[in-house]
Structures are given as structure tokens and as C-alpha cells.
Amino acid sequence: GDVITSAEVGGHVNAFDGATGAEVVSFFAYPGYRGPVDVAAARFGPSADGPVIAAAAQGEVRAFSPRTGAPAAFGPPAGAAALAAYPGYTGPVFVAFGDVNGDGFTDLATGAAENGHLKVFDGATGGQEFASFLGGRGPIADVALADADGTTTRGGPLFELVVGEAASFSVYDPLTGARFDTRWFGRPDDSFVYVG
Question: How far apart (Å, rounded) are the C-alpha atoms in residues 82 and 101?
């Protein structure tokens, strides 16, 4: 697969060909924004022609073409190029892709860094929100969707929401917000744990 990167400051996003290492595209996801931008890439939505790069910051998630860097739609061609995940929130946002309900479509998970607000958006509809809950014990460092318990359906693995926190990570049911597990790596005031 290809490699997607983003600069810690300024939202500069790059995509590199996984086979050759050559740069495929380079663009600024949030022109003029000086904060961090998180990125993930996947096919998203029932009529998606190809994968999209999701770039998140300032309370929203934007979709871009991984070949041109132009704004792209979440889901069907008429879908929105941005999801207002956290209206009024201006801090960092984390993103991850994975199928959380076994319908065969890749869903989108987001996490607001400063307050641990977690949301999941439906890949079958191209972005309808179907879960929203507070996770962690305050600020979070990252989110990932992973098959943490080995559960599968006819559509493949079912993914749980993994959240990096201060000196720990927690695993949540992405549809109900129930916490399955927390693993500690030190004192609660230690550095954040990043997941992926």
C-alpha cells in the first residue's frame, strides 16, 4: 500500500507510492492553519470510486484525492467533502478507518484531542454519524480501529476503537462506547501513548 504522512505543524500532507517510494501528491489540507493535522486513508462510502485521504483538524474532517490532492467526496459522488465532526471545537482531531458493524463498508472514527470526545461515522451512507461518546480520562493522543478481540462476520473482521491516553490505551465498543479494557504503561501523569 501507499504511505500517507502529515507534518506536525502546518497540515502539509504527502502520499508516497508504496512500491517505489516516489511522491504521488503533496498538498496543504488546511491552508493557513499552523496546528497538527492527522491523516488516514481508505475506501469510504457505498459508491466510492477509490480511496480518500481523510485529514482532520479544527473540529472537522476533510476528504482529498490521494492522486491529485483535490477535495473529494465522502461516499457517493454528491457526498460532502468535509464532515463537521465537532462544531465549535478548534483543537486537533484524530481519524481512523475500519468496519465497526460488519456491513462490509469501511467506517470512520474520530477523536477530539482536548476532551476525548469520540465519534463514528457510517461508511455505508458516506458519513452519517451513528455513535458519539466521551472516552478516556480527559485529553487523548490518538485513535485507531483494530480487530482487538478477533471477532469476525461474513464481511470480515469487526474493529474496536483503540484510544491512546496518558500512560495507557483503552479499547472501546465503537457503537456503544462501552470500555472493554485499559492497559497502563506507567503513572497517569506520564507521556501519552500513540496507537496505530
Answer: 23
- Which residue do the cell numbers 480511496 mark? 51
How many angstroms separate the CA atoms of 90 and 15, rounded?
25
pTM metric for this prediction:
0.88
DSSP code of residue 103: S
H or E element, residue 52 = strand 51-57
* Full DSSP string of 20-88: T--EEEEEESSTT--S--EEEEEE-STT-SSEEEEEEETTEEEEE-TTT--B--SSSTTS-SEE-SSTT
pLDDT tens for each residue of 83-142: 889 999 988 899 999 889 888 888 899 999 999 999 999 888 877 888 999 986 778 899
DSSP label at residue 156:
E
CA 81 centroid distance within chain: 15
In angstroms, the CA 134 to CA 179 distance is 11
Tell me whether residue 10 is exposed, middle or buried, using C-beta atoms within 10 angstroms of its C-beta: 0 to 12, 13 to 18, 19 or more. middle
Alpha-carbon Rg for the chain in angstroms: 16
**175, β-bridge pairs:** none
